[in-house]
Specification:
280 residues, alpha/beta, Rossmann fold, seven-stranded mixed beta sheet
Length: 280
């Protein structure tokens, strides 16, 4: 069977399974199994992949039919034009999280300044690693309550050659920081913001991701409230807290933090917020 025939058959199976992008998923899985890129796949559409490639592809296809995310099947996901290793121990990096990086770059345009960044709940490390790459003289601290997640983040830091510039701390949010981990220019976070009721209505793929990294099992605002309340003790005056959010929105009371801006995506959905430490 040629690659073209394999893809046609696989696309129909994934369509029947309810996958949103069946053709794209099939192509990504075949490229991974065959060890080729998109250009080579186009060229070799009428070639017959070897038996081992076909067996690997069919095994991956079955997992996708069960709605396991493609990123977990292939072990990788692109974020900010860099490839990141992912496992079920961490959330899969998403395009909307790139809004946080865009916000930092906009507010701190000097890439050579020795900024101090803190990524709370780093997961795969996509935010911490990206900041370390984009700001070669910055100090970055990344925290996570999950030891397994920190191992993934460290692997990605090593992959992108910034392991020596990121300090990893294990613990619950700010409790992971050392006493001298203060005066940050930016604290950045993609917290669990899915409300309990909303979680039960999410697409099947999200059941494969760590539940504790998605939902606060309440109204979606629990961690956002904690961030706003606890950030001032670790942020320099005039520094910023940049957070991702979703349907839950942002807390009404920002305490010592001033809501500087809400960031919406092209569809008009609230995606993140920028808070400034500006109140005494």
């Amino acid at each position: 069977m040629t690659a073209r025939q394999l893809l046609t058959e696989a696309t129909e199976k994934l369509k029947d399974a309810g996958c949103d992008t069946p053709r794209l998923d099939a192509e990504v899985l075949l490229m991974h199994a065959w060890g080729i890129d998109k250009a080579r796949l186009i060229i070799r559409m009428d070639d017959q992949p070897d038996a081992e490639t076909v067996r690997t592809f069919q095994g991956m296809l079955k997992r996708r039919q069960e709605r396991e995310p493609v990123a977990y099947i292939t072990g990788g996901k692109e974020f900010w034009s860099r490839e990141f290793f992912v496992s079920p121990d961490v959330l899969i990096p998403r395009p909307e999280t790139e809004h946080l990086i865009e916000a930092v770059l906009e507010k701190y345009p000097d890439r050579n300044s020795p900024y101090r960044f803190c990524d709370i709940g780093t997961g795969s490390g996509c935010l911490a690693v990206t900041l370390a790459c984009e700001y070669p003289h910055a100090e970055v601290i990344a925290t996570d309550i999950s030891e397994a997640a920190l191992h993934v983040a460290q692997r990605n830091a090593k992959r992108h050659q910034v392991l020596d510039r990121i300090a990893f701390r294990q613990g619950d949010m700010f409790a992971a920081l050392d006493p001298d981990d203060t005066e940050f220019d930016v604290i950045i976070c993609n917290p669990p913001y899915v409300a309990h009721d909303e979680y039960n209505q999410l697409e099947p793929e999200l059941s494969f991701e760590p539940r504790a990294a998605l939902t606060d099992e309440a109204d979606g605002l629990q961690y956002l409230r904690r961030l706003i309340e606890e950030t001032p003790a670790h942020l320099k005056f005039g520094g910023r807290l940049i957070v991702e959010t979703g349907l839950c929105g942002l807390p009404d009371d920002s305490g010592a933090m001033l809501l500087e801006r809400k960031i919406f995506d092209l569809a008009g959905n609230l995606r993140s917020g920028i808070f400034t430490y500006s109140k005494s």
